[in-house]
């Protein structure tokens, strides 16, 4: 299961800057609207400290994290569905994504032009207008899709399984400046604009400055601005929550690996993400909690403490389960 997140927003709000920070992919970010024309695509590992602990414990060389794919497209403007700006054709790249990250400008910098050429003066009010523009364009793009399908197939599009943009969960990412990062009053007002959708706050430019830093340096750098988690961590956490996802782990001498599954998935369904044969021939799962494993220091101790379980077909997987599947093919 490859988690795919599409980044949308007005031009010049920091989408590519954020994409660069998320992927260190070096995509072009520049101070002019529509810097991005072709979509940028990047795949990044989901940060998971549990993997490092397990790799040490099992003396494993190979660590395979879960991944998330980001798609950064051109900015949308009011009237995009009628061809304004670069139009809305590139939204096709977002259709295959499970979630949308909607980047909203919430920083003040007169050198960076807004799409409407206005001065940034009322951050909350302007953010609200900007959000409405993008959401209307997503709706209009869906309407267009619906009409096209109805005309072509002479069928009611309601009967078809179409990945409408407006059905996708949206995570709002407010690109705030350094002051905004710790301005709780501003953040709560922005959050209220989009509630109950998730809102996260980042400073894309600051995040971008961290490329090339190692994990400890990034942590220290962000902490000096009063920030706990980086944008990648925040976005992935929000996406997992919004989409109802969790991870389970497999660990051995050969490989330590994280797998992404739905919350509520059963043991055979989890096995099926590794290999369809594992699901078909599922016999049992040997399961322990990651916390027990890391607290007790190893499988043997977990077994001796009676904390290693054998679970059957109806077992509902929990986040952080460390599993070995028994199967028969
Ligand atoms: N002051 C400030 N400038 C930023 C921030 N984030 C991005 N910028 C600047 O804004 C300009 C536009 O950033 P991009 O990342 O290219 O914007 P975009 O949303 O991808 O724009 P399009 O591709 O044109 O739709 C660049 O000059 C960035 O350096 C921020 O948090 N603060
Ligand atoms: Mg861009």
If you had to describe this structure to a student in words, what would you say it looks like?
This protein has about 325 residues and is an alpha/beta fold. Helix content is about 35%, strand content about 20%. The chain has a 6-stranded mixed beta sheet with strand order 2-4-1-5-6-7, with helices on both faces. A hairpin with a 4-residue loop joins strand 8 and strand 9. Bound molecules: guanosine-5'-triphosphate and magnesium ion. Guanosine-5'-triphosphate binds near residues 11, 13, 16, 33 and 205.
Describe the structure concisely.
This protein has eleven helices and twelve strands. By secondary structure, the protein is α/β, with parallel strands linked by helices. A six-stranded mixed sheet has the order 2-4-1-5-6-7, with helices on both faces.
